[in-house]
Amino acid sequence: MIESPLFFGDSIRNLVQVIFQLILRRLVVSIPTLIGVSLVAFLLIRWVPGDPVMLLLGERGASPELYAEMKRNLGLDRPLVEQYFGFVSQALQGDLGISIHSKRPVIEEFLDRFPATVELGLIAMFWAVLAGIPLGILAAVKRNSPFDYLVMGGALVGYSMPIFWWGLVLILVFSVTLGWTPVSGRISVMYDIDPRTGFMLVDTWLSGEGWASFKSALAHLILPAVVLGTIPLAAVARMTRSSLLEVLREDYIRTARAKGLSFYGVVVVHALRNALIPIITVVGLMVGAVLTGAILTETIFSWPGIGKWLVNSVTARDYPVIQGGVLLMAIVVIAVNLVVDVLYQVVNPLMRGKS
């Protein structure tokens, strides 16, 4: 039966309407979340011992008069309630404040460093999905075999492995002992790359420096991407196996096998397509976790992204950077989850009445 153009147009119109309503509901629900995140970020950094004004002036140069003047200029002499509502009022206007140390707008510093975190996160997720889904498929097909136990055991170890320990082990083996990869940074200091896009792999390709600069950027990216992608890989492999095993028990899969369809036709075309929803869920959650949880990885490898920026800001008690940076990362996570929800509606029509 061939669907008429009118029916097809109604389906598209219905999908667009459902997605619009979903986005509107999610935006409304995200408001209390952002308020909570802003409040927690605002209060926690102020409970950490240390005075940003004293760190700026130094113990010997902090006369009482200069200390009071600096504190007044930074707005830190006002009551906490007034400081918080001032921060929220400015944030609603797109102004997240000025960094205490760099004297630059927080939003500018965030945008300068965000591409580095995105590049690292995307490469980490790329290899996690590229390896995790095939491993999960093979583990499901070879259920209760030695290969299945090996994959699931490795996934359990990878999921529970401390990132800082894993990163240091890889540095010791591949950088220090074997000398195959650089220890830190995004590219060798011998290359002066114009940051056109902020993505080093793209910028080196466009710079005209040749293959050598691109190879240097890729070499610097390998270890941190492997470390950051280990936990997502384990989660994707386990979810792929679990979801695929449920689908393989369905009647239509047995019917497809009885018809003599090939392994590719049964598992990849029929079973995997219907097992994608839980996998998309895990991938979406892991993308948000990778983008916001790269703090340890970026610190270990001196990767100049958002994570390392926030760690340095905590050390320096840079209140505006911490408040603004945490709020912006919360917005990124909400946006990623919203994209995942929209993908649900596109991939699975049965979800359109349940969101």
Layout of secondary structure:
Blueprint: H1 5-47, H2 52-57, H3 64-73, H4 80-92, H5 106-141, H6 146-160, H7 163-177, H8 200-207, H9 211-248, H10 251-258, H11 263-274, H12 276-292, H13 295-300, H14 306-316, H15 319-347
Helix pairs in contact: 1-15, 5-6, 5-9, 5-12, 6-9, 7-9, 8-9, 9-11, 9-12, 12-15, 14-15
Task: Describe the protein's architecture and organization.
The relative contact order is 0.14. The longest helix is centred in the first third of the chain and has 43 residues, at 5-47. This protein has a domain at 104-316: Orthogonal Bundle (MetI-like fold), CATH 1.10.3720.10. The chain has 15 helices and no strands. The radius of gyration is 25 Å and the shape is globular. Helix 5 (106-141) crosses helix 9 and helix 9 runs antiparallel to helix 12. It is mostly helical.
Report the β-strand fraction as a percent range. under 5%
Radius of gyration, in angstroms, nearest whole number: 25 Å
Estimate percent helicity.
over 70%
> Low-confidence runs (pLDDT<50, min 5 residues)?
none
CATH class assignment of the domain at 104-316: Mainly Alpha
Q: What name goes with the CATH superfamily of the domain at 104-316?
A: MetI-like
Number of beta strands: 0
Largest sheet: none
Looking at the overall shape, the CATH architecture of the domain at 104-316 is: Orthogonal Bundle
CATH topology of the domain at 104-316: the name is: MetI-like fold
Order of helices and strands: HHHHHHHHHHHHHHH
Structural class: mainly alpha
- Number of helical elements: 15
Q: What's the end-to-end separation, in Å?
A: 30 Å
Q: What form results from the Cα inertia axes?
A: globular
Overall residue-averaged pLDDT value: 83
